[in-house]
Amino acid sequence: MSGGQEILPGGNVILHLSIHLEDGTEALSTFGEEPVELQMGDGTLQPGLELAIYGLKAGDTQTLALMPEQAYGPRDPALIQQMPLSDFDGGFTPEKGQIVAFSLPDGEEAPGMILGVEHGRVEVDFNHPLAGHEITFKVEILDVSAPQNTED
Question: What pLDDT is attached to residue 92?
Answer without folding.
Answer: 85
